């Protein structure tokens, strides 16, 4: 029932196999944008898994399609931020989130002329696709977005710490927008069986352990000057604000975006140490396809500007 | 620790909300193809989830991207079968499986001319996209594929039984290709908490229960004349064939496709009551991008033809 410390977690769980590659990518990305004086946001998105076996057939998953994170990344790009999009593999991504694979194939017309076959987007789909495609191409051409992905909670933590190490140099110009649904529970490495659990031996009992709260070292040690936003997803309205306030008291970061599972696409509450502010989409906005993330990001960008301006000028390097 | 009976499972777990819609679609699809004397295969694909809360934030998931099922569906279509593609929501689908969203966007060129803006597929991507697009369009135009989707193990079982009820009319012309990774374990409805588990109350213990083996009523009662293929995924080579044989002995169906998690993309063993046959891709085939599902489906189609021919002629209706 014990929750291990964060140092213990990193000591016991080895880095993922592609960790050094990702660390290089993060380093290059942050240094490049730091040079230009850009603001960088780390957007985490999607759920983490907790493997129940070493050869993973089964795992405990946290629900998250990546809707919030992938939409938010687009709005941060629009606001001129460089974006590290750290997401669960196969979860929704900025730009492509607007179109399922079938929807894209259905947009295409093929003109078969042997070696001169051409494929074009149907005229009535161009209106829908063109604006997204232009923003996608602009972001990629500018090198304004870096994609890194995780699956397990351990991979998530390794990447998170590596990203923080790079972002620390940006001081108050960095935003951490921690929208990923990270498991509160896990099974320590030495308690995970090697092979698939066999149903013949009866139904298993899974003993979960508490995951260390990484927000504590993140705020205090890893990126002490950054503007850190965490998320709180609950299903019980009565717990929502109290739990958001408790998190702010405990971790001393800048904001909790609090939301209920049932209404999260049209209502959130931005809770900061000083105030709390509700954002609600009207029925008309919902019907018109307005993303609530546009408003959330807009408000965070405004508050982040205050934060960055109020910070003492950086020492010359 | 008790495993409930399948009748009990359906009595306790209500049908999913879109169940009647899906049942109508299945009925219409089967009747239409039955009329033309077509063969129909039900391909199940992707993993099922077991919710740990009613307002689902967390669930236990079975690992499966849907690679096997989505590829196999394409090869069954190629062999002239009508395909019911019953898949986990967001898992891979036939045709679109070849291209991620980003890969598709990267294939596109945009020519901005205001209201006459056009979007075309880059010439060097046409070669890759055209054959898939043509097969996709042909299958859809012919109404040869029906997509139905599930998420939880309970939704899966409801859909499976409904599909069987429609397929029963086809007698031996139906194939069931049960490639989905169905959970062996679940938490009965009355044992699932309503709200999100709180980490403050310590780490929870999850008591899983055994899922009833639906293959028994499926083979004996629901589609007794169909050609039924199940799948066995193990991580331990020593268990592979014994467990496949044990399943055939117990359920009396036609074939188990046995595979190891580690090598499943280039090696499977088709185990039938009479024989077992290994299919292995050569290194060259793997490099050339050959799908092992092409060989699996080819062999099953051959055996199914024997099965259908050997069956007594249907009584006139």
List the helices and strands and how they pair.
Two copies of one chain form a homodimer.
Chain A: H1 6-12, H2 19-35, E1 40-45, E2 49-51, E3 58-62, H3 67-78, E4 82-88, H4 101-106, E5 108-111, E6 118-121, H5 123-141, E7 145-150, H6 153-167, E8 174-178, E9 185-186, E10 205-207, E11 209-210, H7 215-222, E12 227-234, H8 237-251, E13 255-260, E14 267-271, E15 276-280, H9 283-287, H10 292-310
Parallel strand pairs in A: 1-4, 1-8, 4-7, 8-12, 12-13
Antiparallel strand pairs in A: 2-3, 5-6, 9-11, 13-14, 14-15
Short recap of the structure:
Chain A is an alpha/beta fold and 317 residues long. Helix content of chain A is 39%, strand content 22%.
Rounded to the nearest angstrom, the distance between the terminal CA atoms of chain A is 47 Å
Helical residue percent band of chain A: 25-40%
Q: Mean pLDDT of chain A, rounded to whole units? A: 91
Strand order of the largest sheet of chain A: 7-4-1-8-12-13-14-15
Number of helices of chain A: 10
Query: For the record, what CATH class of chain A applies?
Result: Alpha Beta
Give the strand tally of chain A.
15
Question: Biggest interface in this structure?
Answer: A-B, 66 and 66 residues
Q: What kind of assembly state do the chains in view correspond to?
A: homodimer
CATH-level-4 superfamily name of chain A = CoaB-like
Beta-strand content bin of chain A: 15-25%
The major pleated sheet of chain A works out as: 8 strands, mixed
Cα-based radius of gyration of chain A, to the nearest Å: 21 Å
User: Could you say what the CATH architecture of chain A is?
Assistant: 3-Layer(aba) Sandwich
